[in-house]
């Protein structure tokens, strides 16, 4: 696959190095490798598969450009599938938190979300099987990268504020008066630990927005389709 990496580097040689270009190169290479794997799985020789995948790749100007045509229903299906996976993982990981009231509520809410997302995914899967790739919409790849970066920055800020608030709530007076921080027992320790852990579930949001550029390129409308 070094040939593919070399081609991607050559594709973007005229663009100034930036975090967005580096992210885009990584996304393009990942999709290129996935396309080659699909073609090989269909019975094509590796060398031929790489040639075909490279020929189907848009120009660098198109890749860096503002607008990308993607199949709307397939795009939504992929996003719902990702968020369903993340929610299922969060549901499993929050099972031990059911020792505390908010932990029980969160775990049950995640289960309800999993069922809802599963129903939506099944509906989209049925629609795509019947209608196929028909309606294409234009989305901004640059905006997707910006949204991804903003989501991680906001999530980091939210987590910092959450940790500071929980610390001030439980240990503020001890810290202020320089007293030793102590917990009365295992239950209080578990309760405080749950309050620190619960906000981590919100990572589902930046994780979902992180994959949007990748999903956009996977679902791009090509002329041969």
Automatic annotation (TrEMBL):
InterPro entries reported for this sequence: Perm_prefix_1
Species name: Brevibacillus parabrevis
Keywords from the named record: Membrane, Transmembrane, Transmembrane helix
Bilayer-crossing regions: 83-100, 106-127, 152-173, 193-212
The keyword Transmembrane belongs to this UniProt entry's keyword annotation: yes
Name used for this protein in its record: Uncharacterized protein
